């Protein structure tokens, strides 16, 4: 173990603290003998990160699922510089549910309805609802007003190259992304759109609206990547408004709606 870890890792100190554990979570003693084909886990120090200024509203909770209204600027799960300030960790801590896990995900900049399972027992059951596209989802977005006709359907092939911040269209490939877009309301040069994704590609809704010439307000990636600092007062105007599905366990119709407002500038 000492040979495989970088020199900056204080192995002796972490062994003494019990940070190295086996598959059962049992700390390894400093003098423990080497065992072939054994996985060993260890816990690194977390980087400092700013606390999220608020809470995650819970829309619904029972013994199997928790549905929350995810705020803008909050990642669904830990990753990169966001660990503690994520929906998963905040809700796990607030509700005392250590096995809480997401059944699907929302981008960090997107707000709205997000469903979690309470324990490992229910995880795969509810994840299949989304994997099999058995859930009905609608989003709302504010973007520049476009002429009709409405509704219109956007179909294309989207890919997100490794290392790229943006997803891009592959024009010669078979469609793998589809969204129905409906104009709901116009105010001057801006409009509110209802977006109904048939598929769930990375940044799909943002790319599809930008491709029509109506990038979502507050979008730092489309049509061009911005290096301006994030402004909490000017979030991405995209909300996962509704989520509906038939419960795979008891067959009861489920329907949830976000209460987050889309503020017109």
Description of the structure:
The protein has two domains: 1-45, no CATH class; 58-257, Pseudouridine synthase, CATH 3.30.2350. It has helices at 11-17, 87-95, 120-131, 204-211; strands spanning 58-61, 65-70, 101-102, 111-117, 136-144, 152-156, 158-159, 168-169, 177-187, 190-197, 238-246, 253-257. The model has no long low-confidence stretch (mean pLDDT 90). The radius of gyration is 22 Å and the shape is globular. Strands 1, 2, 3, 4, 5, 6, 9, 10, 11 and 12 form a ten-stranded mixed beta sheet that branches. A two-stranded antiparallel sheet has the order 7-8. Strand 11 (238-246) and strand 12 (253-257) form a beta hairpin. The chain is α+β, with helices and mostly antiparallel strands and 265 residues long. The chain is 14% helix and 26% strand. It is built from four helices and twelve strands, in the order αββαββαββββββαββ.
């Amino acid at each position: 173990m000492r040979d495989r870890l970088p020199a900056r890792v204080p192995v002796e100190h972490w062994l003494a603290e019990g940070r190295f554990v086996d598959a059962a979570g049992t700390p390894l003693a400093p003098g423990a003998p080497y065992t072939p084909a054994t996985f060993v886990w260890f816990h690194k120090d977390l980087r400092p990160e700013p606390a999220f200024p608020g809470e995650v509203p819970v829309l619904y909770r029972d013994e199997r699922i928790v549905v929350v209204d995810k705020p803008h600027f909050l990642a669904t799960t830990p990753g990169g510089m966001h660990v503690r300030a994520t929906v998963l960790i905040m809700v796990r801590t607030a509700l005392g549910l250590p096995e809480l896990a997401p059944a699907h995900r929302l981008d960090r900049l997107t707000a709205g309805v997000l469903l979690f399972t309470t324990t490992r027992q229910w995880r795969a059951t509810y994840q299949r609802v989304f994997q099999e596209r058995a859930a009905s989802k609608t989003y709302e977005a504010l973007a520049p007003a476009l002429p009709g006709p409405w509704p219109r359907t956007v179909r294309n092939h989207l890919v997100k190259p490794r290392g790229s911040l943006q997803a891009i269209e592959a024009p010669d490939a078979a469609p793998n992304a589809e969204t129905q877009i409906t104009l709901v309301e116009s105010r001057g040069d801006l409009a509110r759109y209802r977006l109904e994704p048939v598929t769930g590609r990375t940044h799909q809704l943002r790319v599809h609206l930008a491709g029509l010439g109506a990038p979502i307000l507050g979008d730092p990636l489309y049509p061009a990547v911005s290096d301006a600092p994030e402004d909490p007062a000017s979030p991405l105007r995209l909300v996962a408004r509704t989520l509906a599905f038939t419960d795979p366990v008891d067959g009861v119709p489920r329907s949830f709606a976000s209460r987050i407002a889309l503020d017109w500038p």
